């Protein structure tokens, strides 16, 4: 009973820490988004609130809370409130299965640095991410506004389209690991056997799909200002709008963590054995947790970098890329991975498959695509 | 007729394979933004940092004094005539005995007012002035005002102070 109690307390405090880290990262993502945008446009960015503007998220939060909380007269009031709550809830739930570190021993209690180690970890992520679009859909529909509805419809169809390619790219990983558990996937990648080496094609597909799932540029059509005013959050104001925006940043961080888990070895980092021998297992585990969060933050930077580089797709281009581009490539990747598992030569077959794929595209282009007459 | 020989005829045909794949262009674009990420910002933090606007920028008006500290203005009114915005008005007064130290000429401006809401900072008053009395200084601007009472600048704000004289590049 005593042991159960202490495990429970340890788990609860760990979940609290993850919760705080996620919220803190999301809050400061808004600041760094503006800073990175500014640097990429040769500007300075926010620098008035505190030194280098680091109190800017606080100021933004105060602004958000102080604004009028407006609910349109003809909206469905309960669903209107439920939309952002659902977005926030699902965004925070995904992190439960991400293994943030190896086991850690405090006193006489040993526990995993992971919310829950379920044997269907990846399916959990998929399920919650699919639910995430409900927040947008409900919010857009309840606004009783045609632009919000159009944004919500776009979000829904976009997420469904890109989940297929995302799932197919993960199937290749499951074939290699043989388990749906995120912990097992990370443990299979220890000591530098990161999946990015075995699955370069799968990673690119997963990355593109993650952009689409997070509704980030170049796939931010649900909140496309030029056509839809503000998209699904046109009618939202005050902290309800803040929740939608916040959920987007949380999703970015969590999808970065998921990508690090699936493709970049999770909490693995070069020199684990050395640190374990020199400073003990606890230090090694904590550095591993830092490594995972660092990898996730690197992905957040890539998300922002892409946002301030690319314009957004047209909607038919988005659908074309998803259905006739990514899904066939992902299927090809599954076949190549299967071949690699069968021959037990995964890296060789993986890169061979990539070369065959590029060569096939070039040959197809030479043979069948009409050339401009010189 | 060609104005320059730099005309470049662009033909848009079918996109090549690399162009249709987007990825090379995306990588190129990301390299460009990364280059800018590490380059120096061009921002000037305005109230704290100020850009040098050049030696002949037309800013705040100033009524110059000569080396002995006597006002140069003789209230001839040419500046007011030249002013396209009719921003300048003045009242002339004859110089009394004993005031030679204060006023250089025998007639001087008792009241000299510029309405800063009307002024368009064209500098025609400076060009019209035969006594080299009024200038638009290059190093200082008319500050923002909050009330209409503040916009009419009298001699108290316009006449040069001897302890902080205005010098322009090229003047002795």
From TrEMBL, chain B:
Organism: Aquirufa novilacunae
Reported function: NDH-1 shuttles electrons from NADH, via FMN and iron-sulfur (Fe-S) centers, to quinones in the respiratory chain. The immediate electron acceptor for the enzyme in this species is believed to be ubiquinone. Couples the redox reaction to proton translocation (for every two electrons transferred, four hydrogen ions are translocated across the cytoplasmic membrane), and thus conserves the redox energy in a proton gradient.
Broad class of enzyme this protein falls into: translocase
EC number, UniProt record: 7.1.1.-
Superkingdom to which the source organism belongs: Bacteria
Cellular localisation: Cell membrane
Residue sites binding [4Fe-4S] cluster 2 per the record: 83, 119, 122, 125
Family note: Belongs to the complex I 23 kDa subunit family.
Complexes and interactors: NDH-1 is composed of 14 different subunits. Subunits NuoA, H, J, K, L, M, N constitute the membrane sector of the complex.
Keyword Repeat: yes
PANTHER family on file: NADH DEHYDROGENASE [UBIQUINONE] IRON-SULFUR PROTEIN 8, MITOCHONDRIAL, NADH DEHYDROGENASE UBIQUINONE IRON-SULFUR PROTEIN 8, MITOCHONDRIAL
Keyword annotations from UniProtKB, A to Z: 4Fe-4S, Cell membrane, Iron, Iron-sulfur, Membrane, Metal-binding, NAD, Quinone, Repeat, Translocase, Ubiquinone
Membrane-protein topology: Peripheral membrane protein
Record note on cofactor: Binds 2 [4Fe-4S] clusters per subunit.
Keyword Repeat assigned: yes
Protein name, UniProt field: NADH-quinone oxidoreductase subunit I
InterPro entries per UniProt: 4Fe4S_Fe-S-bd, 4Fe4S_Fe_S_CS, NADH_quinone_OxRdtase_chainI
Catalytic reactions of this protein: a quinone + NADH + 5 H(+)(in) = a quinol + NAD(+) + 4 H(+)(out)
Gene symbol of the encoding locus: nuoI
